[in-house]
Amino acid sequence: MQKRKLTRRELLATTSAATLGIMADWSVKPFSISGNDQGKLAILGGEPVRKADWPSWPVWDPSAEEEVLKMLRSGKWWRGSGDYVAEFEKQYAELIGTRRCLATASGTTALLVSLHVLGIDAGDEVLVSPFTFIATYNVIFMSKALPVFVDTDPETFLIDPEKIEERITDRTTAILPVHIYGLPVDMDRVNNIAGKHNLKVIEDACQAWLAEYRGKKTGTLGDLGCFSFQNSKHIPTGEGGAIVGNNDEIMDRCYSFHNCGRPFGSVKGNTPIPTRGSNRRMQQMQAIMLMSQMKRAKKDADTRLENATFLDGKLKEIPGIIPYKLADGATRSAYHMYPFRYKKEYYNNISREKFLQALNAEGVPGWSGYGPQNKYELVEEALDSKGYKRLFSEERLRRYREENNLPGNNQLCEEAVCFYQSMLLGTKNDMDDIVKAITKIYENRDQLSES
Ligand SMILES: Cc1ncc(COP(=O)(O)O)c(C=O)c1O
After folding, report:
1. What is d(CA 105, CA 78) in angstroms, rounded to the nearest whole number?
2. 271-284 residue pLDDT tens
3. 196-201 CB contacts, 8 Å cutoff, 24+ apart
4. What is the CATH architecture of 62-293?
5. For ligand 1, is residue 373 a contact (CB within 6 Å)?
6. Is the whole model's pTM more than 0.90, yes or no?
7. CB of 136 sitting under 6 A from ligand 1
8. Closest to 179 measured CA to CA, from 302, 362, 293, 337
9. Judging by DSSP bridges, how do beta strands 212-213 and 216-217 pair with one another?
10. Would the CB of 237 count as within 6 Å of ligand 1?
11. Can you spell out the DSSP letters for 39-60?
């Protein structure tokens, strides 16, 4: 690999703390705190940058309690006995901008239903990003198809559109792009490739409520879009999910499948017939909670965006901190996480884990994100199973193993750091604390050692 010449800032950054005095052009002001332990890192017993709590999550609005009690006392708890779930579906379709929405028991079940209804079958291959939550590719295994991991672009944290086409085989039937952390994938590139090779596109928008790509909401850009409303999510109800789409026949099939395969709507013409299916229904309670949670979603999204934009501007000035880059065409992220990359070479090669410990000690909790899941044991276990050996030739599985090395994803899994979405619901002072804590660690990096 060609070595890049370091800029002046980078050169300065890689020198010791003793040289900081000459960094006259560095825009992040040296951090100082009052007291006797000026600059002493909190992990070593110094005063932390911040002692206050961060905004907690989820938030419950008690005004919805009367409706919950009414429903509980009625004994009409499942979706077939009341209107709450259907009403939520109407409201969510309006919020996202699709003709139809089907509420499901979870985001995982939304993905499972979508894969089945779009015809993904045993022995098929589905292209998917490895930098994601485990459910994204486990549903492909559950469908007895092969999740073919496409490398990640470490700059965007997303599937690298350049790398998609080379992984297509005559068994490929779908692409499952993931808008991870709420960052929109370059969907024009994905859809163009899908169109050219006659593939279905199922968006995993389980972390991307109200994110936008070319001004359109994520989840509305492929054949079907899937969302999660699990406890940690921006519109939470403990467990819950949704599928959105514009094609009535496909959405009717989704309904039928999620309702044990009972006949529904236009499935197979004017006389609906039973289909293969399962029970993936949402309960009335979940829908009431969701309709209450939805009321704050837009305002929260604006607050996260405002704070993330502030962090974008500040963090990129700190040596060795590289905030995410939006993919081409992405117009708005949902910020389920605020992500950046940590370059340890600017911090005397202190590991990311140690950096996170130091950050945490300063009162700013961070997370390293996903590991290299394409290498997880469960993948090998599936390939080695009776079913997969029946479904795929020895030669195909050999090539799969050989190609399952993804340098971009490996790099990201070593460098990624992120802040949880509820931190972005804080004030400007809270965001300042994040900047101060990282700056303090950078400036005092010579105090850190791995032990
Ligand atoms: C990217 C992604 N996909 C799928 C899921 C699965 O959603 P659920 O937990 O609602 O089943 C999640 C949930 O965390 C997710 O983050």
Report:
1. 11
2. 788 999 999 999 99
3. 197/165, 197/168, 197/172, 199/127, 199/168, 199/172, 199/173, 199/174, 199/175, 200/118, 200/119, 200/120, 200/173, 200/174, 200/175, 201/174, 201/175, 201/176, 201/177
4. 3-Layer(aba) Sandwich (3.40)
5. no
6. yes
7. yes
8. 337
9. antiparallel
10. no
11. T--GGGTPPPS--SPPPPS---
The answer to whether residue 367 scores a pLDDT higher than 60 is yes
Distance CA 60, CA 70 (A): 17
Written as one letter, the residue type at 450 is E
pLDDT tens sequence across 220-240: 999 999 999 999 999 999 999
How many degrees, rounded to 5, is the angle at CA 234 between CA 200 and CA 85?
70
User: Does residue 26 carry a pLDDT above 60?
Assistant: no
Decide if 36 contacts 45 (C-beta within 8 A): no
From 108, 235, 237, 239, mutation site for ligand 1 pocket: most ligand atoms within 8 A of C-beta: 108
Residues near 182 by beta carbon (within 8 Å), at least 6 away in sequence: 207, 208, 209, 211, 218, 333, 334, 335, 336, 337, 421
What confidence tier does 180 reach under pLDDT thresholds 50, 70, 90? Answer: very high
Distance separating alpha carbons of residues 340 and 321, to the nearest angstrom: 7
Both ends of the chain: CA-CA distance in Å?
Answer: 32
Please list, in sequence order, all residues whose beta carbon lies within 8 angstroms of the beta carbon of residue 82, skipping any fewer than 6 positions away: 71, 74, 76, 284
Angstrom distance (rounded) from CA 142 to CA 187: 25
* Span from the CA of 37 to the centroid of ligand 1 (angstroms): 44
Q: What is the largest CA-CA distance in the chain?
A: 80
Name the DSSP letter for residue 137. Answer: H
Specify the pLDDT at position 218: 98
Q: Under a CB-based contact definition with an 8 Å cutoff, are residues 282 and 79 in contact?
A: yes
- The domain segmentation of the chain, as residue ranges, is 8-57+296-369+412-447, 62-293
Torsion of CA 436, 440, 442, 443, to 10 degrees: 130
Alpha helices for 219-315 (secondary structure H)? 248-258, 284-315
* pLDDT on residue 34: 40
For residue 32, count other CB atoms closer than 10 A to its CB: 11
**CA distance to 73, 104, 300, 330, 355, per residue, from 127 (Å):** 46, 24, 32, 21, 34
The residue nearest atom 12 of ligand 1, judged by CA position, is 206
**Residue 28 scores a pLDDT above 60:** no
Q: Tell the CATH superfamily of the 8-57+296-369+412-447 domain.
A: Aspartate Aminotransferase, domain 1 (3.90.1150.10)
pLDDT in tens, 101-112: 999 999 999 999
CA distance 218 to 220: 5
